[in-house]
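Dear H.,

Thanks for agreeing to be a second pair of eyes. The structure we're designing against is below in token form, covering all 70 positions.
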């Protein structure tokens, strides 16, 4: 939580796809800033999979990954 508050994030592309009772979304972001004595400059992507059960959307999976930007 401290990291999220200390290092600003710029949201990039976001896409949502729907197929029946399953939906998935992916998004990208860039984080640049400083955390303690470390400079942060990373690119991230997130994926979320949802399923509609009894008319309610429920999260089934979430995945985030990031790498150092060059």
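And this is the sequence the design step returned. I haven't edited it by hand at all.
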């Amino acid at each position: 939580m401290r990291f999220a508050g200390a290092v600003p994030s710029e949201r990039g592309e976001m896409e949502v796809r729907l197929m029946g009772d399953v939906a998935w979304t992916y998004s990208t972001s860039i984080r640049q800033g400083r955390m303690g004595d470390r400079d942060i400059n990373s690119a991230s992507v997130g994926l979320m999979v949802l399923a509609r059960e009894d008319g309610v959307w429920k999260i089934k999976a979430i995945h985030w990954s990031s790498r150092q930007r060059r």
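Two observations from my side: The radius of gyration is 15 Å. The first strand starts at residue 9 and ends at 19.

Warmly,
E.
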